[in-house]
Amino acid sequence: MPVTARRTSLSRAVSQTSEVSTRPTGRTLAKHRKPTKPATPRAAAAVLTVGLTVGGGAAITLATPPASASAATTSATATTTPRGYWSIPSRPLLRFRDKGPTVKYVQKALHLGPDGYYGASTIRVLKKYQASWGLKATGTTTRATWGRLTWTAKRGLLYGPYGKSSGTTTFRAKVLREAAKLKGTPYRYGGTTPRGFDCSGYTGYVYKKAGKKLPRTSRAQYSATKHISRRTAKPGDLVFFKSGGGGVYHVGIFAGGNMLWHSSKPGVPVRKAKIWSKSVAFGRV
């Protein structure tokens, strides 16, 4: 049977309902009884039932939809920082396929061209490095490896006394050790001793201490070496600087990456510095 609702204002309907549900007086409600807590949780929907005067005695129920549970519990998941971006003091365990500036630091310490990718070449050189210092050759940056890396990086060194590399590699390691020992020696024109060096005097002295003799001048040293490409150059090889006409005017010791050890000019002592020119050639004894 169809139900026809009379036009009754909502305020009047609510008023009528309030009159019906008036709180009883007297001893109907014990004073000591605490009102019971609603069984439904706070997140449950508040339901309001309003009795409206509708033909047939029907009641209209107004209800608010329940809040989404997932919306209340959803939180942003913290992203994990890649190991290659962790700080050097944290000594992260870097391994294959890691990327970032901390990987570059390790590669520089190993005298590799730093590309920031922990690939097969980095693992291979690190294993040789670890073995040369009596460390377990894992190819990963263990805490013991980090301690040795930071120590040798400050001194411009590479392989240690337990290296089982070829004689040529061992010689270049000696060259780098001798080159770093002379850090801070003053420049002296024509100097060939630790009291003072010019560029070729420095390289000649270092090579002699490592076990091989070089001619006196930078041009003569260039003529006495096997010329190699920059791609195949290894730390410990010689770096020659050329003028516009192709003549050699300066020489230093390649330290890996874009660095070299050299004695450059008056007022500047022996130091490790960047290779500032593209007009360079590399030589190997």
Describe what this molecule looks like in 3D.
Residues 169-285 form the NlpC/P60 domain. One of its GO terms (biological process) is proteolysis. One of its GO terms (molecular function) is cysteine-type peptidase activity. The protein has 285 residues and is an alpha+beta fold. Among the domains are: 83-155, Muramoyl-pentapeptide Carboxypeptidase, domain 1 (Orthogonal Bundle); 167-284, endopeptidase fold (from Nostoc punctiforme) (Alpha-Beta Complex), CATH 3.90.1720. The chain contains eight helices and ten strands. The strands form three sheets. It has a six-stranded antiparallel sheet with strand order 5-10-6-7-8-9. A two-stranded antiparallel sheet has the order 1-2. It is elongated. Residues 3-11, 17-22, 43-65 and 67-78 have low confidence and may be disordered.
